[in-house]
Amino acid sequence: MPSGNEKADLKAQERREFLSYVWGLGLALALTIVPFAMVKWGAMTPLAVLAVIGVLALVQIVVHFRFFLHISFRQKREDLQLLIFSALILSIMLAGTLWIMASLGLRMGMVQN
Amino acid sequence: MSDGIAKHPGLNLGPGHGKDDAAAEGLMFGFWVFMMSDAILFGMVFATYLTSLSATAGGPGASQLYDLTSTFVETLLLLASSFTFGMASLAMKYRHSERRLVAWLLVTLLLGLAFIGVELHDFASMAAKGGVPTRSGFLSAFFDLVPLHGLHVAAGCLWMIALLGQLVRYGVDTKAKLGIMRLALFWHFLDIIWIAIFSVVYLPGCMHAIG
What we know:
Chain A has two domains: 1-72; 74-113. Chain A is 81% helix and 0% strand. Chain A contains three helices and no strands. Chain A has helices at residues 4-41, 46-68, 77-107. The mean pLDDT of chain A is 90. Chain B is an all-alpha fold. Helices cover 76% and strands 0% of the residues of chain B. In chain B, helix 3 packs antiparallel against helix 4 (98-128). The longest helix of chain B is centred in the last third of the chain and has 34 residues, at 137-170. The termini of chain B are far apart. The model of chain B has no long low-confidence stretch (mean pLDDT 93). At the A-B interface, helix 1, helix 2 and helix 3 of A face helix 1, helix 3 and helix 6 of B.
């Protein structure tokens, strides 16, 4: 059986982890409501709204990773390598696809500007 | 309790769970490898959607088909379900009653099913406006991306039902714990994909000047 001291530590840890989910929920809610409100009652130019949506989405993804999936820099080396390498591959493939297809569309005259 | 290096990414059971915590290390790493490859699959489908944005072929476009309110409702349902799954994970980690664990999982399951319900309702109202996958390249790409996420959520719900049965029949044993931990990762991961969906698909689509 855990001693009294360990029990108290466990309680404190549970409280910390509970608060992590509450923080995650609160931040994610705020980061969701702002872009939806901007699109609904948007006063900015469309390009500015798009930029804000993009930035807030990236921030919200980081919030979910941090508070719901508990990713921090205290991971083992190979775990962080897995995440960062996947993110690298994903961004190369995404950016490469969009670049090539946009360039192709432009040269083939398929995009009406 | 040491707060040192985590055994694996995600909520760790901690040394108090003994052999269950030790068994989690390899399994969770393997599940993360699966999730990262799934993320790359989603990334490519997102790229397909983005390159098909202008391929409406004279059919209905994003601003006629998308509904901002129901997207917002779907977002809140998924976010709430991520939080309730977190509560289930904590109930398991800190050995609260099995009833509490099952209750949080049931709430999560109901939120997931509600999400699927709203999404299906959305697709039906899109179809009523002529937005069917065969109408244009743009709509094919849309129905490749968004229902792919919906299918993942449906698979997560089926998995949850299986785990609930396992819990009721065998109790909170090693297998049940490891199953719940993997489903938790999957569930939070799907919520992250949804952030990308509402930010890339629905919000820009609902901006009339762009759509």
